[in-house]
Amino acid sequence: MAESARFVQVCGVTRLADALFAVDAGAQAIGVNLVPASSRRVDLSAAKRIADAVSDRALVVAVVADLSVSEMKDIRASTGIEWLQLHGGESNGTLSELLPHAFKAVRIGSASDAALADSFDGARVLVDAKVSGQLGGTGATFDWSLVRGLSKSRQVILAGGLSPENVREAIRVVNPWGVDVASGVERQPGIKDPLKVLAFIEAVRGSAAA
Fold first, then answer.
1. Which residue in 206, 187, 158, 199 sits closest to 15, CA to CA?
2. Pair 17, 191: CB distance under 8 Å
3. Which of 34, 56, 144, 202 is most buried, most CB within 10 Å of its CB?
4. What is the pLDDT along the chain (210 residues), one digit of tens a residue?
5. In the chain, what is the straight-line distance between the N-terminal and C-terminal CA atoms, in Å?
6. How many helices (H) and strands (E) does the chain have?
7. Upstream peptide bond of 100 is cis (omega within 30 degrees of 0)
8. CA angle 110–64–71, rounded 5-degree value
9. Catalytic amino acids?
């Protein structure tokens, strides 16, 4: 199946079969969540199995939060996953030590949050919904117009409650470099629904053709 022209990351993947299906369907990246509090968390051995299986065809991104630089470098060494998505309260200095294969995730609830996202180094930045007490994966959306300007100067990966039903409108509003989906293509946390994965990628592909 042809790949979408826009970067698509399917995140919160916990099963090898789901990773393989998403890549076959056209996803350019697979996100594996290593945050202990997440309902989609996998251990390092599972992350490595997924990376070993798909990294020749897609990026594999390890989602982490509030680890030290040395801990994150250890994750790279033990799993073979180069790309890191920093989803906690990490500083720009921490991010800078991991570039170029790392990017910050910033939760957006106001224009000041969008400005904060733009302050982080690196080409890419992921923007997610701001939900009190949650790092991400909530299925909540946010006011997409807040990051429309940011997408003109940065490789914005738009996340936060995206689904096959709303991703075309989100792309129309933001025109992001890429999109990230987790709960919007699931049967339950960490278990992807193949039909929803296909529908999501087809909707992204359709937005590029529109």
1. 187
2. no
3. 34
4. 334 469 999 999 999 999 999 999 999 999 999 999 999 999 999 999 999 999 999 999 999 999 999 999 999 999 999 999 999 999 999 999 999 999 999 999 999 999 999 999 999 999 999 865 555 555 678 999 999 999 999 999 999 999 999 999 999 999 999 999 999 999 999 999 999 999 999 999 988 655
5. 19
6. 7, 10
7. yes
8. 135
9. 11, 128
